Amino acid sequence: MYPTLYHALLDLTGLDLPLLKFLNSFGFFVALAFIAASWTLSKELKRKERAGLLSSTQRSVVIGQAAKPLELAIQAFIGFLIGWKLIGALIELSVATSDPQAFLISAQGSWSAGIALAGLFAWMAWRAKEKVKLAEPRTEVITVHAGDHAGTITLLAALWGFIGAKLFHWFENPDQFMTFFTSPDAKDIFSGLTMYGGLIMAGIMVVRYMVKHAIPAFVGMDAAAPGLMLAYGIGRVGCHVSGDGDWGIANTAATPSWLPDWFWAYSYPNNVVGSGHLI
Hints:
By secondary structure, the protein is mainly alpha-helical. Strands 1-2 form a two-stranded antiparallel ribbon. The protein has ten helices and two strands.
């Protein structure tokens, strides 16, 4: 129905904000699903720790160190991407919004803005470290509570879920695997994802992380279960809002006679069904 938030807002409110063409509806709801799952997992881990099912751990950290080159490089890279693509999209809004996906995977963008923000982000990271820098860095032992792991667990699930979904798709379609490496196309990276492959790989890596950080596997999985159900529900909402959930095999079964005809009638806006739009 609404491939992007731009189409949704335009149809529902009449507001025309072209920059929202970069936000795919399904992807937006997937992001919300991960945020909701992370929040729920954090709450559950904290609750289980209060109940005595989990315990906190100790970790040594070094206080007062100067910024490391890798830290500065990461911040510079993030700043460059924001300046290159985001500011570049604002500068060339008509070009960027005409085909957002092509723009994102192309070399188009503002290189000058990317370089400027790369320097700014690196300087800000260096400055933040300098403010707390000590003449003699010291090691301190801090307490890490179970709920503190929620963010890392969510990122692991997202990363390995994507990797697993892509790998299992290639296992099922080896010809596409060969095509990807012989004739690489950036769009192929995000197409053809097998859901159960993502669940398997993400599950293995998340349980491995939990056990490594003194969270018993079954207790940790129990804590993650409510968030997983909530995330799946939000993801399904995204499917229906975007129209992606209506691209399956047609249901030829007769509709129940006790439901009125208007219940089944819907005119899809934006011609999403059959348009081939990449969600």
